[in-house]
Every structure is written in structure tokens, then in C-alpha cells.
Amino acid sequence: MSGTYLGMPAFPKAAAESTQDESLRANLRHATHTIRDKRAKAVAELDDWQQLRAAGAAIKNRTLRHLDHYLVQVEAAVTAAGGQVHWAADADEANSIVTRLVRATGESEVVKVKSMATQEIGLNRALEAAGIHAYETDLAELIVQLGKDLPSHILVPAIHRNRSEIRDIFRREMEHWGRPAPEDLTDDPRALAEAARLHLREKFLRAKVGISGANFVVAETGTLVVVESEGNGRMCLTLPETLISVVGIEKVVPTWQDLEVFLQTLPRSSTAERMNPYTSTWTGTTDEDGPQTFHLVLLDNGRTDTLADVVGRQALRCIRCSACLNVCPVYERAGGHAYGSAYPGPIGAILTPQLRGVQTELDASLPYASSLCGACYEVCPVAIDIPEVLVHLRERVVEGGRVTIRGTRTTIRPAKGHAAERAAMRAVGWMFDHPTALATAQRLAARTRRLHPKRLPGPGRAWTDTRDIPAVPAESFRDWWKRTRPEGDPK
Ligand code: SF4
Fold it and tell me: Does Oxidoreductase count among this protein's keywords (predicted)?
């Protein structure tokens, strides 16, 4: 791993390589099956789970419809509470705002609590280029950073590593970043956690600047919320003198009452817990308590464009629980790196091509990184119809058409390499529009059925290498209907 998503191959190529890695597949299978079984039990405890799910979807839909209003409310509330709000249209702007803010403190080190938004914009790389070292403090993120790796899962970024690999990384790398790992470090989980705790404590006590994300922003009070399991986040949010939070604009919820719904659904969907071990909330600044300077960077980076798409916008409801990853048969085999984005799995397959567009080969391949089995939709706590969005985006890839880019309606061309698919769909469309031609084709296919090949030639060969072509019936349905129903009998 190079530590960057730039220049990664399209999903089929990356997945073809990762599925050859038996240890990766074993690690993923073990972890996803354990989490998914626990989640199912935690969810089954609630009689009103489906109502909570519907409530979560409704709250998010309403908020997204009036996002302009709620964002202005957030800005006013954060400012009134002593914070400063910055608006970032894209990754470059967000990175330069954060770099400028850190430089203004005169510091060259920051501690970070896990934030997908900063992963999305490549903040660590941008800070490094400016001579600022960012230290990840979430345990799994620390493992990823020390291993010069990339996250492979939304919630468990080091899911692709087993215990002995983690021990080796700690032994090899910790000394280059701060306090070394103990010489006799074993792969016992408690020993690994203790080594990380001692290593990180040094960083927490020294850092003057903290950088965080947020799971939610409550508009009515301008309060940010982080939910986590380790308490490292809370150290990061309270010890430094300056706190900079980088948050996607879709994280807004209007009221505390709305938040209550997600504080029930998120822990059960993600870690199968009834409630979260640590829920930290902060509102602006408070005299002599916690960071004395607070900056909120509100990140767009393709979210407004996504909002303009009436089918695709439901991806913005996502609360990053990762339940869809843990049930996805494609993710389980390919792993998170194959998706070439901070957002892997089913949610990544619909979010990334909307945030980044489908112009590159990698992004155009993502809507196909699914078997459309629908398991992701079944588990999603905010009822995102992921298969519906996947099909919608496949149409965009194949046909091109009207989309919104940087707020302007524009027409994009079809992605390369889908000519055969496009021609086949047009032919099928024409056939369904002409019932007589369809009936003739069906009869012809029925009469010649014994001559049909078992494998397709040319580009279709790869498809039939792993599937049988469905047999054509001896008689079409409409012919059977005519034969078995007397003339004039509609039943
Ligand atoms: S799409 Fe749904 S299931 Fe997947 S991470 Fe987001 S909220 Fe969770």
C-alpha cells in the first residue's frame, strides 16, 4: 500500500488481486461474520426497530430538503457559542483552511480522532507537505498509519490485519513515531492495547492542536457529537488548546430530539452495543475548560451535487455505521482497498461515484461492485435503497446524461467501454416497444433452442464462464396463454 488512493486501478482489477490474498479473505470473513451476527441480535432486542429506521430516514430526508436553512442555523449557533465557521467547497479548500489554522498556532504536530471526512480529502498528506505531522489516535487508525496502509473498513479500519500482523507493525514502527513498543510485546490483545495506550498518551499530553470529525451536528445549539468506543477521541477533543473539526455538510440534524433516534440506531448497527461507550458533545468554547479556540470546517466536496440528484441523494442519509459492509458478499471477498476510496463497501459504491463523479475508470467501475442481492438495504438503519442507487448510477455510467457538477447542470458523456451494454439495452428496449417483433423472436428462439450454445462467444464469454445461460422454454408464456384459454375468456 502506498498510503494514497490516487492512481488506484478500477474495482475489477483491484478485486481480482485482493481476492487472491487468502489471509486477507480469512481476516475479513472472521471479522465481518462476528460483527454481523452480534448486530442481528442487538437489533432483534428492539420491537420498534423498523419504526426507528423509518424515523431516521424521515429526519434525514427532511434535513436534506432544507439543508440550506439548517446550515445557516449551525453557523449562527457555533459563532454565538464562541466558535468560528469556515466553508470549504472542495478537498483543496478544506486542506488549505486547516493547514492555515494549524500554522497560525505555530505548532507542527496535531492529534486526530478518527474522521472519515479528513480521510476523504487526504488531510494528513496535505499537512505533511506543509511540515505538520498528524498523529492518528483511534487504535485502528493508528495501526493503519504505522503500517503505512489505508483504511479498509469504515468502523474497523484495520479489519484486514490480524493480531500477529499488528504486533509486528508496533514492534517495527512505533519507535519512529514516538514511544517504542515493549521489546517483549506479544499478540495478546491486552498487551497490544497497552502498548498503544502508552504510545498515544505521550502524544495527547504534548499536542496543542486537535483535529476531529463529527458524527452529527445539532443545528438548534451548534453542538457537535462524536461517538466512539475507546475514549481516545475524548482526550483529543478536550486536551488540546485548539480544536479544528472537519465535518461534511450532511451531518446536520435539526434538534436534540432528532439526535436521540440515531443514538439508538447507530451503536446497534455498528458495534452491536445498546449504547455507545463514549458520546462526546461540544458547543463552541467554554472559559478554562477544554479547547479555548474552536474552528468548524463545513465540507461540501460533491455533497451539494449529490443532493441535486433525486435518486442518489439518499446516500447522504448515511450515518457511517458500516452494517452494509459487514453483510456484503462482495466486500467480504474483495476487502476495502479495492474500492479506491475512504468509503468502501456498498455505501462506497454509491457515495464515491457521486462525490467524485464517474469520469475516471475507477469511479465508473464502482456501481458494478455489487451483486445487487439487497442485503445492504435490509440492514441499513436509515433505509438507504442501495441497490436502487447502484442501478441508477450504472445507467449514468452507460448512458451519460444530465448531472450537476459544482452546482451547474451539465451533460456528461457515457463512460468508455460500455458500447456493447448500451447496444444490447437499446435492442431490448426496442423489442419491448414492438410486441409483434417480440413474439416472433420468442417463437424463433423456442424453435431453435436445441441449437443454442452453452457459452456466449466474444465479450460475453467471461459472464458464462461462471454461469449457465438460462434455457429457452419450448413455448412462450403468451403462446401458452392463447393455447390454454378459450377465445374470449379473460381469466
Ligand atoms: S449505508 Fe446504511 S448501512 Fe451502510 S454505512 Fe451508511 S447507514 Fe450504515
Answer: no
DSSP state of 153: S
Give the tens place of pLDDT for each residue, 117-168: 999 999 999 999 999 999 999 999 999 999 999 999 998 888 888 899 999 9
Distance 256 CA to ligand 1 centre (A): 21
pLDDT at position 478 is 86
Which residue's alpha carbon is nearest to atom 6 within ligand 1?
318
From 43, 325, 382, the mutation candidate for ligand 1 (largest count of ligand atoms within 8 A of CB) is 382
Residues facing 135 on adjacent strands: 111
Q: Report how far ligand 1's centroid is from the alpha carbon of 74 (Å).
A: 24
Question: Cβ contacts of residue 283 below 8 Å, gap of 6+?
Answer: 77, 78, 81, 83, 221, 222, 223, 224
> From ligand 1's centre to the CA of 9, what distance in Å?
25
Determine the straight-line distance between the first and last CA of the chain, rounded to whole angstroms.
Answer: 64
Distance CA 42, CA 267 (A): 9
Instruction: Choose between 298 and 489: higher pLDDT.
Output: 298
CA distances (Å), 9 to each of 28, 152, 332, 381, 490, in order? 21, 16, 19, 31, 56
**How do residues 380-409 score in pLDDT, each as one tens digit?**
999 999 999 999 999 999 999 899 998 899
**Residue 386 CA: which ligand 1 atom is closest?**
1
What average pLDDT score do residues 270-284 get? 94
- The residue to which cell 468509503 is assigned: 343
Q: What is the DSSP string of 200-248?
A: HHHHHHH-SEEEE--SEEETTTTEEEEEESSSHHHHHHHSSSEEEEEEE
Burial letters 142-172, b for 16+ CB under 10 A, else e: bbbbbbebbbbbbbbbbbbbbeebbbebbbe
d(CA 403, CA 410): 6
Q: Is 443's C-beta closer than 6 angstroms to any atom of ligand 1?
A: no
Going by their DSSP bridges, the two strands 109-112 and 133-136 should be labelled as parallel
Determine the distance separating the centroid of ligand 1 and the alpha carbon of 350, expressed in angstroms: 11
Ligand 1 atom closest to the Cα of residue 325 is 4
Q: In the structure grid, which three cell numbers stand for residue 439, read together? A: 413474439
Residues in the chain: 491
Q: What is the pLDDT of residues 222-265, one digit of tens each?
A: 999 999 998 999 999 999 999 999 999 999 999 999 999 999 99
Q: Which residue has the cell 464502482?
A: 366
